[in-house]
Amino acid sequence: MKSNLFCFLIFYAQFLLAQTIPAPKLQCVNNDALNSNVDLQWSLPGNPCGGTFNGYKIYAASSFNGTYNLVTTIVNENQTSYVDLGRLSQGGTWFYYMEADYTCPGSTVLQSDTIQNAPPATPEIISVDVTPNNQVIVNWQRSISPQTKEYVLYYALPNGNAQPFDTVQNRSTITALDVIADPTTASIAYTLAAADSCNKISSFNTKPQRTILLTYATSQCERSINLKWTRYENWQMGVKEYRILVSKNMQPFEVVGVSDTSAQVFSFSGFNDGDSLCISIIAVSAADTNIISHSNYACFVPSIVQSPDYLYPINATVNLDNTVSVSWLVDDKAELSLYQVDMGNNGSQFNLLKQYSVAQPLPQFETFIDSASDPQNSALYYRIKAIDSCNNKFPSTDSVETVFLSGELLDYYVVALYWNDFAAKFSNILYWNLYRNMGTGAFQLIKTFPAGTNQTADSLQAFLSEKGQFCYRLEAVYSIDISGVYQDTLSSFSNVFCIDHRPIMYVPNAFAPNGVNNIFKPTIIFGSPQNYSMTIWNRWGAKIFESNAPDIGWDGTQNGKDQQMGAYAYLIKFTASDGVNIERKGMVLLVK
Length: 592
Description:
The structure is a single chain. Strands 19, 20, 22, 23 and 24 form a 5-stranded antiparallel beta sheet that branches. Strands 27, 28, 30, 31 and 32 form a 5-stranded antiparallel beta sheet that branches. The protein has 5 domains: 19-116, Immunoglobulin-like, CATH 2.60.40; 125-210, Immunoglobulin-like (Sandwich), CATH 2.60.40; 214-300, Immunoglobulin-like; 308-501, Immunoglobulins (Immunoglobulin-like, Sandwich); 504-590, Immunoglobulin-like (Sandwich). The protein is built from 1 helix and 49 strands. It is flat, with a radius of gyration of 40 Å. The chain is mainly β. The N and C termini lie far apart (144 Å). 3% of the residues lie in helices and 50% in strands.
């Protein structure tokens, strides 16, 4: 009997020693900036042992690892909020935790989570993944901020902003399914933020992660599928590799190849005619190979294609915004998937400029806008290739060449202009039109030249009152005759060539206040003088006149009093429209 009692006492003592006093759950710590207060809210912990309630203790520190001081003791057991008066006047960042004080001998007192008065920390994204039914799963790390109540999911926009589309409750929930977006049409960027019970929300993650967009082109003639996909971005250590996943005829998926990160392309040929294929790309994280991301799933049956009978470039013209419109003619009965535009600075060496998908149904005329090349430096040559779904390339019969206009100031008032011939197969230049713009906003036709002309001179003598910048544009009017296919008359414009005529300043060497030339001032031709000044000094070095406007000259007086006949020093300065500082100094003779 004594033995049983002894065992019971030992068990009871161990029970008391093992008992803990839970802390209140600190749910919300919010700033009241208007009154410099911090508001705290918590949920009740419950009495663990039935002992006497002594209070809830609130501690605060200005840093997470700082020295925590007792703020107050709440003596009302049912109280769930407290206002820490004037706390923000001592600094803007504070950390709080709570303890419950019950008379429970031998019990361990637990502390609540330490909560900051700032919004929760921004959560880290683990991956974005695409399911076999082409829905997107977003995965992230559990928020490190204990006050986190929910997560806000966003679509990351190209301008750096983000558009919210879903809210996920519970700090421990770290995955979400997006049933709205379609990952088969675009690479979709995701980011997220954390929010607490005070409705404070963190900034959204500035390193969004994108779904991989997989596109493909079939090549039945070579029994291959040409795959292309977008990069997976913003993993901490990047992508280790891409794996190509294929299912044939509803069978389980298999990895059929691995690609490094240098290029996002792969050619798959392990299939038979008529097979039904489903393909996806897997990106593998370099930091953790257990973290992966699938692209969209592309499911299709490869089909045969028809090649084009002809492909002719017919025009390349420079637009006013300095882009180049390149046009070509193609057999619209062909089944094409891509166009490739090559560009070079001569007719023999070309570089890939752009490759893009063909519109369906295939139009006979196609125009590409080149905004990457610079037609201001030289003539540009373009060559077109049509690519079918077999990856067969059908190059154009020849290249097309833009007109490059250049020039120089031969002498005062004369501009010399030079240009090359427009060139396209089956084309014939009929005549040239020259246009000029003097700052009015519109080009005016000034001359027409016959074919075979490649230079001219333009006199500016009649435009001495203009600002001094003259811009030119040349138009080649030509016929094109592709026998049995196409005939037309077209135009190709050159680049815009502008020349700034340096200001010309005439300064009289004498003037007579009572004569015909009674005001001393310069005559400035071409240009809009900025920061203009003219200063006059007498023979003793005293400044007697100053003007800051080209139209206001010296009338030979100082403060209304006529000055003596004789020589006076002048200094005229201004900044020309091209930024060059102009200065003229000398002597002017005042004659009476």
